[in-house]
Specification:
Elements: H1 3-48, E1 54-62, E2 65-68, E3 71-74, E4 88-92, E5 95-100, E6 105-110, E7 120-125, E8 131-136, E9 143-149, E10 152-154, E11 169-176, E12 179-185
Antiparallel strand pairs: 1-2, 1-4, 2-3, 4-5, 6-7, 6-9, 7-8, 9-10, 9-11, 11-12
Signal peptide: 1-21
Region (Disordered): 26-46
Biased composition (Basic and acidic residues): 28-46
């Protein structure tokens, strides 16, 4: 075999073996570009996608989990332990909103303090101070969770003497007899 023929065959073999490697490098580059493009499209979809909102009745509360409409949702709000089964809520990116009852207050302590008989109770009042729900309950310090809005306490039972807080919002109050003492703001 002549030297020229040998070099031509060697060159053809080199091209034949190196061509797929060049193609793989191009494919890898195209694959990376495709992945980056897909990632950018997914991020754009996330930005344009409306935030998920859940509406439903409260079925239960456990630590930072709210059971609504058969779903367990992680919710961060100081009002979570005071929600009652049957309340209708909206859970969204802004947090939690109680839709029904629209205004409410929560009490835990001796039932006779609020006219609910002997024994510890957990009670919720709705709009206008109307008793909404009562469950057997809590035997610790008597306390009240209520919202102070437009210069008045919302949905609290009649006969309690509650102080005026420094600002509007949800408050936790300790009760000594029928007199309330501000503990902290819950928002």
């Amino acid at each position: 075999m002549k030297r020229r023929t040998f070099l031509v065959k060697l060159l053809l073999l080199a091209v034949a073996f190196l061509a797929p490697a060049w193609g793989e490098e191009e494919k890898e580059g195209e694959k990376k570009k495709g992945e980056e493009g897909k990632k950018r499209r997914d991020e754009a979809k996330e930005e344009n996608r409306p935030a998920l909102r859940y509406y439903g009745q409260v079925e239960g509360v456990e630590e930072d989990t709210l059971w609504v409409g058969g779903r367990a949702l992680r919710v961060r709000t100081p009002l979570l332990p005071y929600l009652a089964p049957g309340m209708v809520v909206e859970v969204g990116p802004e947090g939690l909103a109680v839709l029904s009852p629209a205004t409410w207050a929560y009490y835990q302590g001796p039932g006779d303090l609020v006219g609910l008989g002997q024994g510890p109770v957990r009670a919720w009042w709705g709009e206008g101070g109307v008793l909404w729900r009562v469950l057997p309950g809590y035997s610790g310090q008597a306390s009240l969770v209520a919202r102070y809005q437009q210069g008045t306490w919302q949905a609290v039972p009649k006969g309690l003497s509650l102080p005026r807080p420094p600002q509007e919002g949800w408050w936790l109050l300790a009760l000594e007899g029928k007199t309330g003492k501000l503990i902290r703001r819950l928002e």
